[in-house]
Amino acid sequence: TTAPPLDGAVGAPGVGDPYFPDLGNGGYDVERYALELTWQPDTGRLAGRATIEAVATQDLSRFNLDLVGLEVSSTTVDGADAEVDRAGREPQIPPASPIADGAPFTTEVTYEGVPTPVPDGTDLFEVGWQTDGREAYVVSEPAGAATFYPVNDHPTDKATYTVEITAPEDQVVAASGLLVGDPVAGEGTRTWTYEASDPMASYLLQIAIGDYELVDAGTFGDTVIRHAFHRTLADSAQVATERTAEMIDVLDDVYGPYPFEAYGVVAVDEPLGFALETQTLTIIGSDIARWGRRADDILLHELAHQWVGNLVSPATWKDIWLNEGFATYSEWLWSERTGGDSAAERARALVGTSADLDVPPGDPGTGELFITSVYWRGGMALQALREEIGDDAFFTLLRRWVDDHRDSTASTEDLVALAEEISGQELDELFDAWVYAPELPSFDR
Ligand code: TRP
Ligand code: ZN
């Protein structure tokens, strides 16, 4: 007998994120991206071929990717040519015949162009591929990945990555994951291959191309510690990152073993004024690299994100406080455990400062995703929770949170449920007051 022909249905153009409805796509789940990228700094052009291995999650007659701007020259699905219809940032790809629910498929997209960053929703910054005409690197949170590769651009679809980057021979490439072999020389170029074998959300992929010194900083247990410092700031970046192993040690104790194959920092030649927790390779600006040991707090923050944010990612962008509140709270725990102020003191010190904390961290709004309240009041909410359920339950919660949701995503509701399970207490009121109500509550004591 032959199976009846499959009709299939069109995959959704988004995953239904309340803040960014277009992000990600329905109907499939990516397992692996293999990206071959050629960076041409003289023209600002990036030429790419993406091979995307996925599994259909419905009978699929057509699926979308997310890709901003760049021109697609050819697309195949399982080796057969497919005609792409481009609807803005949503290439729509109809396979020659529908793909059955549960079936694996591979799509290959060849593309090229000048990558252009996109607003991050907050108007503060444009995210995605960044360049000064020579050096290039990425800061993608929340929606910039699609500026340099075709992607199912939402944290709910994590995948592993192999990236093969060809750059002028006098440039060095650093990326998420581990370098495989030596760079391979071409005509005036070198090709660098990085393998990132831990599942990763698309906004966390780092690729940096510049005049870097690759620094081997040893290991912590099984974790390789390696950095990439722009040559002009290598000495101060070395000082700034001196305590990396010690920080991993403290956070291992809080959250459980460091979750990925490697960790390190890429310090780029641009005073970004910020850092981003790109997976296994946090990016920092030249200004922060030059702070020396005053960078401890921010580096601890980005390291903590490897557990809270990267291993466990927000279910939707509305849950951003689960990243930023936890990473901020981790700074306070580091302080508490290294002879500084306690978390209780750090939390209370923020009351009455000029920052606007009357913004609910659990629903800050698309335009205010990274507002101070998400960080500070998010951390204060965790301190209030700790005081309500006690240290034993609280630290059990932190470990269970990471362990129960590893390689996946979680929501604020998941946190409430787990905290109630572990403590045996009703915690709706506490979370409502600290996370969802507009007005900042006060600490009892
Ligand atoms: N997640 C970063 C942090 O808290 C901050 C951040 C948010 C960011 N969006 C960004 C940094 C975009 C660079 C670009 O450490
Ligand atoms: Zn952060």
Characterise this structure.
This protein is an alpha+beta fold and 445 residues long. Helices cover 24% and strands 31% of the residues. Strands 2, 3, 5, 6, 9, 13, 15, 16 and 17 form a nine-stranded mixed β-sheet that branches. Helix 4 (296-305) crosses helix 5 (321-337). The longest helix is centred in the last third of the chain and has 18 residues, at 372-389. The radius of gyration is 22 Å and the shape is globular. The mean pLDDT is 96. The structure holds tryptophan and zinc ion. Tryptophan is lined by residues 120, 125, 127, 139, 141, 274-277, 301-302, 324, 370.
Overview in brief:
The chain is an alpha+beta fold and 445 residues long.
Shape: globular
| Number of H- or I-type helical stretches | 10
Give a short account of the largest sheet.
Answer: 9 strands, mixed
- What average pLDDT do the residues reach? 96
Indicate the multimeric state.
single chain
- The tally of strands reads 26
Reconstruct the topology from this structure.
Blueprint: E1 9-10, E2 28-40, E3 45-56, E4 60-64, E5 71-77, E6 80-81, E7 85-87, E8 90-93, E9 104-113, E10 118-119, E11 126-131, E12 136-139, E13 159-168, E14 172-175, E15 178-179, E16 184-185, E17 189-200, E18 207-210, E19 212-220, E20 223-230, H1 234-240, H2 244-255, E21 262-263, E22 265-267, E23 275-276, E24 282-284, H3 286-289, H4 296-305, E25 312-314, H5 321-337, H6 343-348, H7 372-389, H8 391-404, E26 408-410, H9 412-423, H10 428-436
Parallel strand pairs: 1-4, 2-13, 20-21, 20-22, 22-24, 25-26
Antiparallel strand pairs: 2-3, 3-9, 4-8, 5-6, 5-9, 7-8, 10-11, 11-12, 13-17, 14-18, 15-17, 16-17, 19-20, 23-24
Helix pairs in contact: 2-4, 4-5, 5-7, 7-8, 7-10, 8-9
